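Checked the freezer inventory, then went back to the computational side. Two predictions to log before the end of the day. The first one is the construct we discussed on Monday; recording sequence and tokens without edits.
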Amino acid sequence: MKVAKQVANEPSLEFRINRLEVKRSALAIVNRAASPEYRVDLSNMDLTVDNLSNQRLQGTSVARLKGRFMDSGEAQATMTLRPRTGGADMELSARIEERRHGTHERSRAQLWRRQCGCR
């Protein structure tokens, strides 16, 4: 992230990806610094990123993600990113639809909400 901040909107360096697609993939995040430690995963993931650049003049980047969160429900997220000198402006919206309602699934959802500060 430190390098990304240094090159954001830097006129002497241009980075650009018109479109990036990742299909039928998996992503896992482990937080060993948390107490208790936790792992969250997304399976059957599709990710599309359009217009990714470090130059503000190139416009807004949009990322869309879909998959199955912790094998308990569908997850979707959309992020918009616009470079600015020294960083970026970002908006993120995410939604997880829980489909199972057993104790184990509820505890995972509660853990995720507590860790991300979500309701």
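The second is the one RB wanted added to the comparison set:
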Amino acid sequence: MTVICIKICTQTGPYGRVPQNQILCFSFNKLLLQKEELEQRHLHLLQVVESEKTAKWQYTQQCEELTSEIKKLRAEVSFLLECRNERMKLAWPLAEPCHATRREGFTASFQRSSKQDV
């Protein structure tokens, strides 16, 4: 078992002077275990970040696809409305003489009745 010793420089504290040659010894194996644990945590966090980036990219792709689908649908609705308006314009002159004749007949009968009253 390898032991790493670290010498600590000491100062006078509130409870008196700490010995200058106090040495803390750490087990090298404990340090290696802590290092491996931190590396595993780091790798895990990297994987989480990478999966989040992938999810973000997928959502971005979906948004772009849906945006283009919305544009297509709006264009289709616009086209269908134009077609409907064109059909109504074509059908309107056929229906218009009926209304015009009714109006003319009503106007003529109204004029006749008002002339008789005078």
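For RB: The chain is about 75% helix and 10% strand. Residues 28-117 form the longest helix (90 residues). Let me know if you want it refolded.
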